[in-house]
């Protein structure tokens, strides 16, 4: 019989042409008679080609390979005595044969994928493209799918060859990982950037520190940690260290641990080969780019922020991070920053000059990192070009395309060695000074207490025979002040810089007072000097801040304080605290002129016996100050009777002999023992002493002639609030 039409469940009726010959019968479903079912001639057999309009569930049950809605089904019903074989042709080619029997229904699936007139069965490979390292196959839904043979971080280099070559960029506080995801480091800790089995034995660590603000962190250095080998440290200024030893890099150098280090005007690159994989770490003092290369397969097995920047909160290296590195700060916003202008500048990464890069590398994370940083931190030290330069370098590494035309549009010069050869201390970072030179600036946390108190250094240190003040070198550098132009009152007394911490110390002592001036103010004896700048300009102008830093040390006379001892104790010791200079005042009694036989509780002293009294200090420098015994007198216990032994620094009794008074920090006198007439009470000996500044003057009282007076030629000591020391003896 001839069936004129077959029906599809999802489309309009499909025309079917049935042709019978003496040899075969053919039912075709297209106008070109290419998609057909061919069987033997009708000889004694009857075929019914029909399209069932029901029982789709039954067909799916018996044809489990078909997952989609049935588009076309053909049911062959025959009345025959033999087992005819039917051939199913697609595009004129046989795709399957089926033998019908009278034993029961038989089901055949002749569906699949068709491409370029060719039918493919499920899971058949359709084709491959070696240039893209991909294959095509017919999936379970009769759809041709393309599968890449390369992993998620791999690229096809033709000839079905896959290699992984992802790049991770760490610049400022931003981490742009191998997948192009962006995250920001908020604190000042150390983080694992790269580790894992692909780079077994190697861990790349990034150290983050603050610069001008406490609340913005910057990548400060990079370390390659190698199992069983010395670490390689890449630091600012192109400094490379193997362990703690600074290395000299000439062109390209292979270190003892197998790391190859090279240096050019753009920065330092360290390369380590591990098996068939290579890790390249570039660092220019601001930006690090980690380039991982190796043969394809399942993709590199790596960990760290470069593999997943979102994990920034859990990858801190506690054991190498400094204490309290995780503490967060919130500084006052910088009002000089125009965020709109900075955003426009960062969006230059979308400009057509980067078109060749855009086809391979998404600029979005670089733009976001640029905006986020420059809206909080001033665009200094080349920071405005840093993110653009990092994107361009990523492009050159990834696709070997050097993009330079962007520099003129962005106002960025070609890469130059930045801070190379300049070594800053731990509390400093390398930056650009006011005059455009390179210098070491103070890190914000270190500088905060100085700037809060509006000071350039630490408090004055007053010691026994000297005074000094220390200024912070990086604070001077920030203000454009050259410490070598600063000096004390005496221009020959200049500052000494510590080579490690760059602190600058100015000092004077008794042997070299450096123009120190001595003044008195009520109860204070003040030694003052000034740090000032030398104006070397011939036309009376200066381009530096004017510097006048006064610092002083002072002695303050203590309040009158009577400490009474009986003579059996043989000495009186009184601790005197005078400002920041401390000293001890002592009075002792002796029975011999050599001052060897001290009077103690067992000593019997006779009336009219000569006694030697010693007054001395401990903690004073006789080059700066002298001790003057101004007066000594005796009183009875009720202090109703008084007898003067010394007045105005001179003897007031014929038995008294005063020696060394005002010559140094030690003086003594002698007198003959006495008692008050008609009194048996204890007798107290009181001595009033003063301090005298003996720089360029004499402190010795003038006792010549009958008139006792202090020498007026500059002998200066204080009569206000004198130091008083007392010794008592009993009858």
In words, what does this structure look like?
It is a single chain. With 731 residues, this protein is mostly beta strands. The chain has four domains: 5-111, no CATH class; 162-313; 457-554, Immunoglobulin-like (Sandwich), CATH 2.60.40; 567-729, Immunoglobulin-like (Sandwich), CATH 2.60.40. The chain has eight helices and 50 strands. Strand 22 and strand 23 (232-235) form a beta hairpin.
List keywords for this structure.
731 residues; mainly beta; Immunoglobulin-like; six-stranded antiparallel β-sheet; 50 strands; 9% helix; disordered N terminus
Query: What would CATH call the architecture of the largest domain?
Result: Sandwich
Count of DSSP helices?
8
The CATH class of the largest domain is: Mainly Beta
Strand fraction? 35-45%
Total discrete domains: 4
Quantity of strands, as a count: 50
Q: Which spans of ≥5 residues are poorly predicted at pLDDT below 50? A: 1-13, 536-541, 559-570, 707-721
Gist of the model:
With 731 residues, the chain is mainly beta. The model is unreliable at 1-13, 536-541, 559-570 and 707-721 (pLDDT under 50).
Topology of helices and strands:
Elements: E1 5-6, E2 14-15, E3 17-20, E4 24-28, E5 36-40, E6 46-50, H1 56-62, E7 75-79, E8 85-90, E9 93-99, E10 113-115, E11 118-120, E12 125-129, E13 134-138, E14 144-148, E15 154-156, E16 162-164, E17 167-171, E18 174-176, E19 182-184, E20 190-194, E21 202-210, E22 217-226, E23 232-235, E24 239-242, E25 245-246, E26 252-254, E27 260-264, E28 267-274, E29 277-283, E30 287-295, H2 339-346, H3 355-358, H4 364-374, H5 383-399, H6 406-410, E31 428-432, E32 438-442, H7 444-452, E33 461-462, E34 466-472, H8 473-478, E35 486-487, E36 496-497, E37 503-509, E38 517-521, E39 524-533, E40 548-556, E41 571-578, E42 581-590, E43 610-618, E44 625-636, E45 642-647, E46 650-651, E47 657-659, E48 666-672, E49 683-693, E50 723-729
Antiparallel strand pairs: 1-2, 3-4, 4-5, 5-8, 6-7, 8-9, 10-11, 12-13, 13-14, 15-16, 16-30, 17-18, 17-30, 18-19, 20-21, 21-22, 22-23, 23-24, 24-25, 26-27, 27-28, 28-29, 29-30, 31-32, 33-34, 34-37, 35-39, 36-37, 38-39, 39-40, 41-42, 42-43, 43-48, 44-45, 44-49, 45-46, 47-48, 49-50
Helix pairs in contact: 2-4, 4-5
């Amino acid at each position: 019989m001839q069936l004129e039409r077959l029906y599809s469940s999802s489309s309009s009726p499909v025309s079917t042409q049935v042709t019978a010959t003496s040899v075969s019968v053919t039912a075709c479903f297209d106008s070109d008679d290419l998609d057909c079912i061919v069987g033997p001639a009708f000889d004694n057999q009857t075929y019914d080609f029909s399209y069932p309009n029901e029982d789709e569930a039954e067909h799916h049950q018996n044809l489990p390979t078909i997952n989609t809605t049935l588009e076309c089904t053909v049911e062959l019903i025959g009345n025959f005595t033999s087992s005819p074989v039917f051939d199913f042709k697609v595009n004129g080619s046989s795709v399957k044969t089926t033998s019908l029997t009278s034993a029961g229904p038989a089901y055949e699936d002749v569906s699949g994928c068709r491409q370029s007139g060719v039918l493919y069965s499920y899971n058949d490979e359709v084709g491959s493209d070696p240039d893209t390292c991909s294959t095509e196959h017919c999936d379970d839904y009769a759809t041709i799918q393309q599968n890449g043979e390369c992993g998620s971080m791999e690229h096809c280099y033709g000839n079905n060859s896959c290699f992984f070559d992802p790049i991770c960029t760490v610049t400022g506080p931003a981490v742009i990982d191998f997948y192009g995801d962006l995250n920001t480091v908020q604190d000042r800790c150390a983080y694992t950037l790269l580790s894992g089995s692909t780079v077994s034995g190697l861990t790349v660590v990034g150290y983050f520190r603050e610069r001008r603000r406490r609340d913005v962190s910057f990548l400060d250095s990079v370390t390659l940690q190698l199992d069983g080998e010395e670490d390689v440290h890449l630091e600012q200024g192109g400094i490379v260290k193997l362990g703690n030893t600074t290395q000299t890099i000439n062109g390209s150098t292979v270190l003892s641990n197998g790391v190859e280090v090279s240096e050019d005007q753009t920065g330092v690159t360290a390369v380590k080969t591990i098996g068939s994989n290579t890790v390249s770490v570039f660092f220019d003092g601001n930006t690090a780019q980690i380039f991982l290369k190796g043969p394809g397969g399942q993709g590199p097995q790596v960990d760290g922020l470069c593999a997943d920047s979102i994990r920034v909160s859990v990858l801190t290296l506690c054991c190498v991070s400094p204490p309290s590195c995780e503490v967060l700060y919130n500084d006052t916003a910088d009002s000089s920053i125009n965020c709109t202008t900075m955003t426009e500048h960062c969006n230059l990464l979308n400009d057509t000059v980067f078109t060749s890069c855009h086809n391979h590398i998404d600029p979005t994370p670089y733009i976001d990192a640029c905006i986020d940083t420059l809206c909080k931190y001033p665009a200094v030290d080349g920071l405005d070009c840093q993110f653009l330069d990092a994107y361009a370098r990523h492009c050159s590494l990834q696709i070997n395309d050097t993009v330079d035309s962007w520099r003129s549009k962005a106002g960025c010069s070609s890469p130059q060695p930045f801070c190379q050869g300049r070594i800053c201390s731990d509390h400093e970072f390398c930056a650009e000074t006011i005059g455009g030179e390179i210098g070491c600036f103070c890190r914000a946390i270190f500088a905060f207490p100085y700037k809060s108190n509006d000071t350039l250094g630490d408090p004055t240190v007053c010691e026994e025979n000297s005074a000094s003040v220390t200024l912070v070198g990086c604070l001077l550098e920030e203000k454009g002040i050259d410490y070598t132009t600063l000096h004390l009152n005496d221009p020959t007394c200049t500052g000494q810089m510590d080579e490690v911490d760059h602190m600058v110390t100015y000092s004077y002592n008794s042997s070299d007072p450096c123009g120190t001036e001595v003044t008195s103010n009520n109860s204070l004896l003040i030694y003052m000097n000034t740090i000032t700048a030398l104006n070397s300009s011939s036309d009376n102008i200066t381009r530096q801040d004017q510097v006048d830093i006064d610092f002083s040390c002072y002695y303050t006379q203590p309040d009158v304080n009577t400490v009474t001892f009986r003579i059996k104790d043989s000495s009186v010791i009184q601790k005197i605290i005078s400002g920041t200079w401390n000293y001890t005042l002592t009075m002792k009694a002796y029975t011999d002129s050599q001052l060897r036989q001290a009077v103690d509780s067992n000593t019997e002293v006779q009336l009219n016996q000569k006694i030697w009294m010693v007054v001395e200090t401990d903690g004073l420098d006789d080059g700066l100050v002298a001790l003057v015994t101004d007066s000594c007198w005796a009183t009875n216990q009720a202090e109703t009777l008084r007898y003067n032994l010394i007045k105005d620094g001179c003897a007031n009794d014929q038995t008294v002999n005063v020696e060394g008074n005002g010559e140094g920090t030690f003086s003594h006198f002698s007198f003959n023992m006495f008692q008050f007439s008609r009194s048996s009470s204890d007798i107290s000996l009181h001595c009033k002493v003063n301090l005298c500044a003996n720089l360029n003057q004499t402190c010795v009282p003038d006792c010549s002639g009958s008139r006792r007076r202090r020498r007026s030629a500059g002998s200066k000591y204080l009569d206000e609030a004198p130091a008083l020391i007392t010794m008592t003896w009993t009858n």
